[in-house]
Amino acid sequence: MGYNVAVVGATGNVGREMLKILDERQFPVAEVTALASKRSAGKQVSFGDKTLTVKSLEDFDFTGTDIALFSAGGSVAAKFAPKAASQGCIVIDNSSHFRMDPDVPLIVPEVNAAAASGYAKKNIIANPNCSTAQLVVALKPLHDAAKIKRVVVSTYQSTSGGGLEAMDELFNQTKGIYVNDMPSPEKFTKQIAFNVIPHIDVFMDDGYSKEEWKMTAETKKIVDPAIKLTATCVRVPTFIGHAESVNVEFENELSAEEARNMLREAPGVLVVDDPEENGYVTPVECAGEDATYISRIRDDITAENAINFWCVSDNLRKGAALNAIQIAELIGREFLKKAA
Question: Which of these CATH numbers, 3.40.50.720, 3.40.30.10, 1.10.3720.10, 3.40.190.10, describes 3-128+320-339?
Answer without folding.
Answer: 3.40.50.720
